[in-house]
Amino acid sequence: MRRRQESSMTTDTSRRVLRLTGNDRQDFLQGLITNDVKKLADGLVYTALLTPQGKYLADFFLVPDGDAILLDVATPLAASLTQRLTMYKLRADVQITPADIVPACGVGDIPDGAFVDPRHDAMGWRAYDGQTAQDGVDWDAIRVAHCIPETGIELTPDTYPLEAGLDRLNGVDFRKGCYVGQEVTARMKHKTDLKKGLTVVQIDGMAPVGTQITAVGKPVGTLFTQSGDRAIAYLRFDRAGKDMQAGDASVSWLG
């Protein structure tokens, strides 16, 4: 990997890291998550755990770590994800323990030992070996520009992974075989056209995350992260258009 020359780095204290060990760790994850664990041979893997009904429970990164797999997840989901994985573990030879690691993320040249963020080139890299923190990355601006959802904001228990674009962000593998929620996800991919989902909108004014978007007085969707005159929104595509409202702000769909 390239050495860091000039980069902006952030220690991500909003994240927790779990360590999975045991002989069955790869097979165990392979039967649960939306992505292919075998991709760890190439670096970081972005993936999600779903309900049997195909809805979002958690999204996270898998990190190769010798005889272990690190799991990098948002702090508010760490306890419930550990509990869910433990429930699925049964008699599998898998141990799930907290890791004393604080992730770092940044843009620019990739430090030694860091990994490219698989979601999008603009999301830079992530590191798990004690990199020094530096401030200055406007992550919301990057996420909005490329419609990249965030845990607990755009990604909620009502989210379907394809409506959130997780396939576009290399978070879903349609060839890996069965996993929890796979049947619903595959049906949405192959048998239907998405009628709702996350998209980028233009916005004039400000409105809080969660504000309802309307068109001609009818609900169209929900406004999420805003950066400048752009925002991520969840829209019904058949109702969305150029003349919408979110509170006192004017919203226009760019799709």
Describe the structure in your own words.
There is one protein chain. The protein is of the alpha+beta class and 255 residues long. 15% of the residues lie in helices and 35% in strands. The protein contains 4 helices and 15 strands. The protein has helices at residues 25-30, 75-89, 139-146, 182-190; strands at residues 7-11, 15-21, 45-50, 56-65, 68-74, 95-99, 104-108, 115-116, 125-127, 196-204, 212-215, 218-227, 230-236, 244-246, 249-253. The strands form 3 sheets. The chain has a 6-stranded antiparallel beta barrel. The protein has a 5-stranded antiparallel sheet with strand order 3-4-5-2-6, with helices on one face. The longest helix has 15 residues, at 75-89. The two termini are 37 Å apart.
Strand proportion, as a percent range, falls in: 25-35%
Cα radius of gyration in angstroms: 19 Å
Q: Distance N terminus to C terminus?
A: 37 Å
**Mean pLDDT across all residues, rounded?**
93
Number of E-state strands? 15
Helix/strand class: alpha+beta
Shape: globular
User: What is the helical fraction, as a range of percent?
Assistant: 10-25%
Model regions low in confidence, pLDDT < 50 over at least 5 residues: 1-7
| SSE string, helices as H and strands as E | EEHEEEHEEEEHHEEEEEE
Largest beta sheet: strand ordering: 10-13-12-11-14-15
